[in-house]
Amino acid sequence: MKEHLRSYAGNFLFALNIFIIFLLLFESKLEIPVWLHPFGRMHLLLLHFPIVLLLISMILEIFGTRISFNKQPFYEEFTSIVLLVGVISAGITVIMGLFLSRQGDYGRNVLSWHKWFGVSIFFLGSVMYTIRSSDKYKTVMVKVGGSITIVCLLLTGHFGAALTHGDGFIWNSVMDDRAEVVPIEHALVFDHLIKPILDSKCTGCHNPDKLKGKLVLTDSASIHKGGKSGKLFVSGNPEISLLMNRIHVEPESKKHMPPSGNTQLTPDEKELLRLWIKANTQFNQTIVSLPPTDSLRLLATAYLNTSETLEDPFEFSSADEETVKSLNTNYRVVSPLAKNSPALSVSVYNKETYTSQTLNELMDVKNQIVSLELSKMPVTDNDLQNVAKFENLRRLNLNFTNITGDGLATLASLKHLTRLSLSGTKVNYPDLKQTLVDFENLNTISLWKTEVTADEINQLQTEYKNIQFLVGLKDDGSNPIKLNTPKLKHKSVVFDDSIQLQLFHPVKGVEIRFTTDGGEPDSTASIFNGTTILKESTTIKARAHKSGWLSSDAVTLHVYRSYYKPDSIMLLSKLNRVHPANGAQTFFDHQLGTFNANSPAWANNWAGFLKNDMELLLEYKTPKEISSIAMNTLIETETSIFPPATIEIWGGPSIDKIQLITRMNPEYPKDYRKPFIELIECKVPKRKVSYLKIIARPLRKLPSWHKNKNNPALLLVDEVLIN
Asked: Which of 151, 542, 619, 620 could disulfide-link to 568, CB 3.0 to 4.6 Å?
């Protein structure tokens, strides 16, 4: 290297040392601008370059102490250049890493070790390069310094891998991580079913040392807390729980969990998580404390009883990884049954896309499929011809398909089949009596909601004592079930003039009692018969009743009247880019939002205003007599979503003659509350107007009790009602 270039490089190295020391001293005050984020993220791209150069350099330095290499001009020149380039690239990588550490959700402990070992490598290399040409650069110093640098390189890489792939990434694949076998009478739902699923599929990225999404899944307190996207689940309601949404979102989506390329959850694991959330996510509940016919208990029992079998080595080899990957589509998930297992689990969904070809396409992996989920698909007896080719199949779910007893004989060739689900199908007793004798290893069959009667089940159980027949709860009056709450059946709960009340309950024969005056829907309340007409915004309270069942909880439902839809809608202010909704049309499209982040309405139906006012200008070609203006708003204190600080209503006969009609200051929360939706109504003196201007000003500074105090609040509105 030419002397002037070496001089420039040496000066640059000195400047890197000063800059890195500055960054370390003031690291806690660093705020990385967005335009520098890509530079920080290049840390992962560049880091391998200095690792290789410094490893080579340290080895050359140590070997250079030998007499045969000592003082050879070419060797001296070459090793000096390699060390210089290695140290400079290490310095640049350290700066990128410091920038990156201010962007992500990383565990402080592992990040700290990774950072200081990385910084040590840079400073050690800088010292070695600075003194290597002096008399102080002795053989012992070279060997000690080189050895320490190599050790630091290895430890930096180790902690870096822990940051990106989770603790124990290197050894987990060869360690025996099989769950302890626990007797069913001692097993806990969370400890022995849910936690092993999270440990094997989730905690690699969601642990105290790798806080992806600010979410930790290693302990119950952290699971309750949730992460950056909010609470992980809504107890008792898996359908609106973030955890289930992330599991079931399309595999190609960045939000899909576990991420594409990682071992996916099996159908049974997904169902266990769903049932656990539905059972109110208790952490200390034993399996045997659940009712004998409870779905979670039945699946948990089967899961624990068969887990040992499923972990035994299979005699067949693994399928080609690329083939498995190609079989995953928007309507089918094919994934390993367990880590390092050749067995595959297949789940088919979206009945609109299902055809016989869906099963034909699986023939390349027919020997590896041990679990097949076809529930609610339009599967026919003809399709079972293909299913019978999956010769190693252990579990088959045909619940609510179109199969009949004629197709069962086809499945008798599956010699390894242990669990068969036929609930909601057309199979009957004669079919079962004729074909069950041919199933050699079947130990569980579900038959609820079929034509098989209780007496026939008893006969089958007497004849086939090695098979457990699952038939669901038979209501004899001793174990009443609590009804779920009624729901509104309307496509939209916003109406123009009048609306016929439509209440719905999925259980047949249910009596729904309701009120529209705020009273409780008890035995004196009206019985819903479908004839009630509502002409005003109304709050409905309803409760479901049925003989032999526990009455449902009372539910509060709302319908909203919006009589005057404007002829022209102009939004005069800018929407928050995260919540653009449908622009100006959002406020009169009769589509309401929710406070559930798993619902499309959350993303699509709320119009947001953060640092600027909501300003709507409405025109009526024929003057309208206005008496009230209301806006439907979301309040979610945890995420800084508050009601407006001020609402102003302006009106007049023309655009140049509008004047202030009324102003109100809605009350805002005084502490943290659960999310709720509030209709804020402004009553105005009756007057005819051709133009209305509605101004809602977001709260400029959050109150002192809020974690984001003094920052602006977000205002979310989904509908404006004018009457």
From this structure: 619
Same domain, 604 and 581: yes
Tell me: do 624 and 597 sit in the same domain.
yes
Mean pLDDT of the chain: 81
What SS3 string covers 16-50? Answer: HHHHHHHHHHCHHHCCCCHHHHHHHHCHHHHCHHH
Q: Which residue has the tokens 């020997």?
A: 367
Other Cβ atoms less than 10 A from the Cβ of 459: the count is 15
Percent with pLDDT over 90 in the chain: 21
Q: How far is CA 237 from the centre of its chain?
A: 14
In the beta sheet, which residues pair with residue 631? 680, 720
Q: Which of the two residues, 668 and 228, has the higher pLDDT score?
A: 668
Number of domains comprising the chain: 5
Residue 658 and residue 287: Cα distance in Å, rounded?
68
Same domain, 270 and 249: yes
CA distances from 126 to 45, 53, 568, 683 (A): 22, 14, 70, 74
Q: Which position has the token pair 């009756």?
A: 686
Residue 403 lies in a domain: yes
Based on the domain organization, do 285 and 393 belong to the same domain? no
In a domain, 459, yes or no: yes
Whether 348 and 409 map to the same domain: the answer is: yes
Residues 584 and 716 in one domain: yes
Q: Is residue 57 part of a domain?
A: yes
Residue 637 to residue 181: CA distance in whole angstroms: 44
Which of these, 596, 586, 572, 608, lies nearest to 714 by C-alpha position?
608
- What the block records as the tokens of 156 is 């930096």
Question: Residue 176: its pLDDT value, please?
Answer: 43
At 120, which helix (H) or strand (E)? helix 108-131
Please write the tens of the pLDDT for every residue from 480-525.
Answer: 567 888 989 888 899 998 999 999 888 888 899 999 988 888 877 8
pLDDT-derived band at 38 (thresholds 50, 70, 90) equals: confident
Place of tokens 């053989």: 139
DSSP state of 636: B
Tokens of 325: 């990957």
Reading the block at residue 168, the tokens are 């124990």
- Note whether 507 and 572 are same-domain residues: no
Q: What is the CA radius of gyration of the chain?
A: 33
pLDDT tens-place string over residues 407-436:
888 898 898 898 898 888 889 898 888 888
- 30 and 114: one domain? yes
Confidence of residue 178 (pLDDT cuts 50, 70, 90): very low
